[in-house]
């Protein structure tokens, strides 16, 4: 379905498909015991054979485990899996998605550098740039996606940072077009909403891709983590900064949970994105819904870019604006019974947020409007439940009367 086959004239066997890579990469049988389920190595430190071995491990290019904040076998197994899924030379895992974002930015930036932020990004990423990084002399330039794709980045940014699809309207930015104009800048793409199943930014010219692994990579809502992928050199620098120096190491237990979830990423995303597409179409036809934001709909302003850039579907997030504004949004939220009222996304269970009364309630209505957050905007993260059960829950929540 998705192999990058080398074609009939090559004698090279075709590359394994996404689902095969998801199951096998990083999950070689344990050489000591033959265990197929990778052991969780909780040890904080690792014994040296003798003084020469210790010195060799600490030396340049040193091989072998030393201390689990630096590297740990269970975390390294997850990193081999995510690198393979992303088509990257290397990956590094972090204690959270924000730690991965921080490592991507912190390892590239110096005082006086500028970051071009293209379109809307996760609010905490903006807070990191405007708060802690600004105090270290980093400046932020907000660039509209339509300018970035045509080369109007302005200034000489050290980092170009974008998120696609982006919250809350699932705007899609053309990664390849931005990459063509980035010059010497490091292009960092937060691909959390798409997952590597739907989008591989490195193949489109990004230098680093970051994920909140808390979301669909893990997929079961029971782990907080982050992953960053790219060239071996950039990933090593981000790891040295974020894991070794800042200490945002992922725990081995978390790595085991995320690797276990990642094995079924393709199955879960295939199901969730198919369901999301159908729900988006049904919502678009519903009289209580003023507008649906889903990149798989022909009505989405970025549908053409999404169709080019994303594959095997358009992801598991659907946003929709209720005709009745904030009151209708709160009423719809109250009436849900199967879909959970919760933040986060990418879980096996469906989750919904009503930003105007929850995550963005502290903003004024004008500030929300400027951020494209309508008063009746609902964001649905579609899980793997049965389509008809989900539609029944949505339709009864949207019903005009009780
Ligand atoms: N990037 C995106 C797009 C997110 O939605 C989030 C969290 O919601 C993050 C990064 C941060 O991830 P974490 O919560 O794992 O730190």
What would your notes on this structure say?
- It is built from 16 helices and 12 strands.
- It has 402 residues and is an alpha/beta fold.
- The chain has 2 domains: 18-262, Aspartate Aminotransferase, domain 2 (3-Layer(aba) Sandwich), CATH 3.40.640; 265-399, Aspartate Aminotransferase, domain 1, CATH 3.90.1150.
- Strands 1-7-6-5-4-2-3 form a 7-stranded mixed sheet, sandwiched between helices.
- The chain is globular and about 75 Å long.
- The termini are far apart.
- Mean pLDDT is 94; it is low at 1-8.
- Residues 96-98, 101, 122, 163, 190, 192, 212, 214, 224, 226 line the site of pyridoxal-5'-phosphate.
Short summary of the structure?
By secondary structure, the chain is α/β, with parallel strands linked by helices.
Q: What's the helix and strand layout?
A:
Layout: H1 18-24, H2 51-58, H3 73-86, E1 90-94, H4 97-108, E2 114-118, H5 123-130, H6 132-135, E3 139-143, H7 145-148, E4 159-163, H8 175-180, E5 186-190, H9 195-198, E6 208-212, E7 226-230, H10 232-245, H11 252-262, H12 265-284, E8 289-293, H13 303-309, E9 317-322, H14 325-335, E10 340-341, E11 351-353, H15 365-370, E12 377-381, H16 387-398
Parallel strand pairs: 2-3, 2-4, 4-5, 5-6, 10-11
Antiparallel strand pairs: 1-7, 6-7, 8-9, 9-12, 11-12
Helix pairs in contact: 1-3, 3-11, 4-10, 14-16
The protein binds pyridoxal-5'-phosphate.
Report the major sheet: 7 strands, mixed
Total beta strand runs: 12
Shape: globular
The number of domains: 2
* Neighbour order of strands in the largest sheet: 1-7-6-5-4-2-3
Low-confidence stretches: 1-8
Bound molecules: pyridoxal-5'-phosphate
**What sequence of helices (H) and strands (E) makes up the elements?**
HHHEHEHHEHEHEHEEHHHEHEHEEHEH
Distance between the termini: 45 Å
User: What is the CATH C-level name of the largest domain?
Assistant: Alpha Beta
Rg calc: 22 Å
Mean pLDDT: 94
Share of helical residues: 25-40%
Task: Determine the strand fraction and express it as a percent band.
Answer: 5-15%
CATH topology of the largest domain: Aspartate Aminotransferase, domain 2
What class would the helix/strand composition place it in? alpha/beta
């Amino acid at each position: 379905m998705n192999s990058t086959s080398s074609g009939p004239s090559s004698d090279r066997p075709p590359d394994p498909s996404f689902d095969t890579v998801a199951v096998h990469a990083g999950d070689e049988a344990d050489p000591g015991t033959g265990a197929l389920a990778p052991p969780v190595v909780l040890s904080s430190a690792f014994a040296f054979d003798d003084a020469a071995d210790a010195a060799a491990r600490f030396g340049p290019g040193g091989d072998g485990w030393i201390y689990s904040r630096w590297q740990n076998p269970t975390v390294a197994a997850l990193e081999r899996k995510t690198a393979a899924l992303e088509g990257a030379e290397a990956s590094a895992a972090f204690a959270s998605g924000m730690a991965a974002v921080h490592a991507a930015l912190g390892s590239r930036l110096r005082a006086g550098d500028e970051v071009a932020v293209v379109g809307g990004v996760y609010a905490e990423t903006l807070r990191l740039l405007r708060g802690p990084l600004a105090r270290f002399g980093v400046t932020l330039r907000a660039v509209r996606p339509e300018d970035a794709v045509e080369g109007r980045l302005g200034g000489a940014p050290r980092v170009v940072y974008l998120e696609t699809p982006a919250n809350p309207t699932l705007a899609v930015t053309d990664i390849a077009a931005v990459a063509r104009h980035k010059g010497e800048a490091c292009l960092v793409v937060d691909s959390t909403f798409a997952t590597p199943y739907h989008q591989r930014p490195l193949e489109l010219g990004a230098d680093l891709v970051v994920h909140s692994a808390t979301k669909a990579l893990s997929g079961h809502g029971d782990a907080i983590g982050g992953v960053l992928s790219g060239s071996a050199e950039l990933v090593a620098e981000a790891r040295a900064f974020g894991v070794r120096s800042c200490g945002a190491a992922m725990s081995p237990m978390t790595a085991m949970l995320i690797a276990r979830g990642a094995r079924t990423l393709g199955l879960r995303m295939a199901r969730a994105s198919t369901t999301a597409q159908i729900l988006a179409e049904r919502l678009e036809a519903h009289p209580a819904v003023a507008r649906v934001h889903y990149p798989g709909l022909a009505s989405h302003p970025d549908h053409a870019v999404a169709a080019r850039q994303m594959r095997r579907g358009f992801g598991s997030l659907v946003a929709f604006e209720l005709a009745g504004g904030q009151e209708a949004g709160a009423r719809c939220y109250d009436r849900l019974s199967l879909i959970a009222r919760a933040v986060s996304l990418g879980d096996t269970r469906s989750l919904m947020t009503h930003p105007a009364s929850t995550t963005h309630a502290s903003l004024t209505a004008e500030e929300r409007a400027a951020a494209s957050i309508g008063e009746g905007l609902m964001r649905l993260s579609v899980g793997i439940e049965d389509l008809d059960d989900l539609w029944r829950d949505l339709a009864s929540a949207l019903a005009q009367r009780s």
